Automatic annotation (TrEMBL):
It comes from Arcobacter roscoffensis. It holds the Pfam family UreE_C. Its main location: cytoplasm. Residues 1-63 form the UreE urease accessory N-terminal domain. This is Urease accessory protein UreE. It is found in: Cytoplasm. Involved in urease metallocenter assembly. Binds nickel. Probably functions as a nickel donor during metallocenter assembly. Keywords: Chaperone, Cytoplasm, Nickel.
Amino acid sequence: MIKKIIEIKKDISFDDEVELSWFDMQKPNLTAVSKKGVDFIIKAKFTHLHENDILVDEDGFTIKVSRSEDMIYILEFKDALSFAKTAYEIGNRHQPVQISESKIVVLDDISIEDIIKDCYKNESIKVEKTRGYFKPNGKAHHSH
């Protein structure tokens, strides 16, 4: 039986936990399965989920939200021009990015597969595919 989440709370005790990726936490409508095997559905009106949110279902059962690691690419640049061009191309695809000095971190996503492929060919860009916590800059993944 699928449980319907009716409320999101903070700082209360919980009965179960669920690990969600960054992308899943941004979805206004989500179905997932908790660690104890509870199927649930949530419609988060006007917001998205945050780490440590407590989801309360219609029966009062509570599920704590935890972040899972995502498949990410870490792009490290040796020159400013490659950095700027790559950032521009990723931004043109409306993908969320985590930018720091000479590095860009992006989620492994099919929509930027060609950009990543080109980065591997560019000797001034070091590309690492790994698992990690994605923390995009600004108000990433917004709607217009």
